[in-house]
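sorry for the late reply, my laptop died twice this morning and i had to redo everyting from scratch. anyway the thing you sent over, i finally got around to it. pasting the sequence first so we're on the same page, its 169 residues, then the predicted structure underneath. double check i copied it right bc i was rushing
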Amino acid sequence: MALAVPTEPRGNSRIGDAIETMRLWLGGKPAAVQVAALPWRRDGADALEILLATSRDTGRWVLPKGWPQKGRSLSETAAREAWEEAGLVGDIGADPLGSFFYRKVLDNGLRRRVRVQVFPLAVVSIDEDWPEKGQRRFGWFAPQEAARNVHEPELSGLLLNARLLDRLR
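ok and here's the structure:
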C-alpha cells in the first residue's frame, strides 16, 4: 500500500456555500456535477471501513466517481463507476450523503470547478474482472484514515462526519 500525504479537513461548508453564492452572483460559471460512490463495509469486529481507489493520472486516493450518464440516475451512475473503477458490487443509496467541490484539470490544462454528489454503496462483493482492473490500486480504511488520505478538504470533512457515517448501517 502506498503512503499518502495526510491532509486535515479545512474550511467550513457554510463559508464554502457563501463563497459559491457570491461567485455565482458575480457572474461565475456554475460548477460541473459529478457523482461518486462511498463504498463501505463492516469488518469482522463490526468497524466501518471505506474503500478508496487511486486516480489513474496522479495516484491520489479518491472515491470512485464520474460524470452523470444518460439513462441512469445519479445513484445508478455512482454504482456503475464503483464497478468500472474497482469491481465493486453492492447496494447503492438513492439519496446522497453530501457533496464536495474540487478542481478538475482538463485536457487543455485549464481547471474546472466540479461539485461531486456522494452516494453510499454498501459493498456486497468484488468482481474478479472489471473495465479498469490493473489501472488503479485500492484499499479499505477506517474513516479517520480515509479522511487523512484524501486531498480534498470537503471530502475529508464528509468522511469525518459522524452523523452521516451513522447512516451507513
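The chain has five helices and eight strands.
thats about all i looked at so far, will dig more tmrw
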